[in-house]
Each structure stands twice: as structure tokens, then as C-alpha cells.
Amino acid sequence: MGEFGRRRRWGLAAALSLVLLAAGCGNPGGVDGNLTNGWAAIGVPTGFTPAAGTCHLANFSTFGPRASYEEVDCDIKHRTETVYVGTYPSPASAAPTPPADDSAGARAAYAVCDQKTSAYVGGPWRVARLWVGVTQPTRAAWAGGARWFRCEVVESSSVEDDGGLVQRLGSLRNALKERGSSLLLTCYAVQLDAQGKIDTMPAAPCTSRHNAEFVGVWNAGKRAYPKTDEQWNDFHDGCRRLIASYVGVPDDADLQYRAGVISLPAGDDVWALGERGVRCYLWVDTATLTSSLRGKGKKALPVQYQ
Fold it and tell me: How far apart are CA 280 and CA 277, in angstroms?
């Protein structure tokens, strides 16, 4: 090909390129060329936060990953119920990891859940077959900014005999406001083992044969979890005072001859969270009762020296 031919082809290619560039600088009708001025601003990313007043199929867990979170209607069989969702305050919220069980942050969250649960169920939750736990974000969620905690309430088959979780139907909201609620602690048929120690204490209606009765919850204050005989005797003395008030008998030296006492503090795991409620029961091993002793006085609970 001659020089002229090469120049002619180059000229045509250059002319075509200029046409395409010129066409690229223009915009079709109705298009202004600004690709972003019509878009809404992107908000700040937010993490997952659970909801209160919801029920769940999963068992209670101290950590609540998003992947296992599932809300269900409380009218179907479920395991746990969220009564409240709070936010960890400072300084716990500023920590790099969720609060440890024995930390001030964990104790503060448990104290909130204690109060919120009683308000939710319509009465002090410790007088019923209920258990309260605190669920917190996973470490990964905490690293992503999550600072919530969930107050979970669980129905137990028994709080005296290491009962198991009950898969219940229906919400626990205001459940203790119901007159004669089946959740309330009442009377018991205590059974002893071969060594004369308490083996089991299954619940029994107060109108049927029984030998023990729930009298209330004693607050142990700042006391350590009982391990020695001296510590246990201190707890028993606290419960005896409740027995005297419940039945209507003197809180004196003769009280130990009127009734035995059963003191049931919560487990040492929740004790570390600040739980100080001790469930107290009167126990009359030598008698079979067929009614409640509340307010019955000395005649119903006489001194028995033998």
C-alpha cells in the first residue's frame, strides 16, 4: 500500500475517533449526567437489636447470636420469653468485650432484669416456679457495636428439686396476677433419704397431705454464698424469722421446736450476678398437714420438745 493509502486510512480512523468522542460528551434527553444527585443518603450501619415481649423456641443462652434468634407467637409451645431489652451503660459499654459474670456491668444488668421481670409477670418472680437470666451479644456482635442485653424468664417444673425447663403455652405477662396461679410456690411433701436428710420435696396442694410450706423470700444482703455450717445457720435464722411472721408465732428460742426450716438460695452462678433471694419453707416432719398454716398461730404450730 502506498503512503497515500496509509495516510488516508489513518485519517479516516482519526475522524471516526473524534466523532465517537464528541458523541460521548453529549447526554440523551432527560439525562443530566449526574449519577448521584437523585439518590438518598446511605444511613449509618446499625446492628441487630432483639425485641421485648417476645417468645423463643431456643433454650436460654448467655450469648444471643443473630443466627439463632427467632421470635414465635407466645401461644405456641416455647422455651423462653424476653421481658425487657436494655442497654449496657458506661463504663461497661466502653469495654472491648461483653461484661464477665462477676463484673459490675453484669450485676447491674441482672438487677434491672430482676425488677423488670417482677413488673412483667405481675408479682415477685421468686415466689413462683420461675427463673431469670440475662442474655448478651456475642463477642463478634459486641465488636460490631452491639450493647444490648435481654432479660429472659423461664418456667421451671420445680425450683426445689432441680427441675427442668417447661415448654409452656402462653405468655408469662401478668401470670402472677391470676388468682391461685399454678406457678406459685405453696405446699410440699418432703421425703427423707436413709440418712435422714431431705431427698426430694415434690409440690402438693395445701388441702392434701403435706409436711412443708413455702413462707416467703429472705434477702441475704451482702452475705457470701453459704458453704460452712455457721453460714447455713445464719441463713436458717433469716428464714425462721419469716416462718414466725407467716404463721403468727413468736420469733423466740422455742421457734426451733415448732418447725424445721428449709433454706434454698439460688445457685452460686447467679449469686455472682447479685442474686440474694433465699426461698424459705417451714417443715413439720412429725405431722401431716392438710391446710395452710398462714396466720394460724400457736395452736396450729405448737412447741414439740420431742
Answer: 9
Measured in degrees and rounded to the nearest 5, phi and psi for residue 301 equal -135, 70
Q: What is the distance between the alpha carbons of residues 179 and 186, in angstroms, rounded to a whole number?
A: 13
- Reported as a single tens digit per residue, the pLDDT across 216-241 is 999 999 999 999 999 999 999 999 99
User: What are the helix (H) ranges across the chain?
Assistant: 3-24, 104-121, 139-143, 229-247, 255-258, 268-271
What pTM does this model have? 0.82
Strands 277-283 and 212-219, how do they pair?
Answer: antiparallel
Residues belonging to the chain: 306
In 3D space, the residue among 108, 111, 113, 65 whose CA is nearest the CA of residue 88 turns out to be: 108
Cell 417447661, residue located: 166
Compute the distance between CA of residue 299 and CA of residue 251 in angstroms, rounded to an integer.
15
What DSSP letter does each residue of 254-275 carry, written as one string? Answer: THHHH-EEEEEEPPHHHHTTT-
Closest CA to 277 of 200, 226, 217, 194: 217
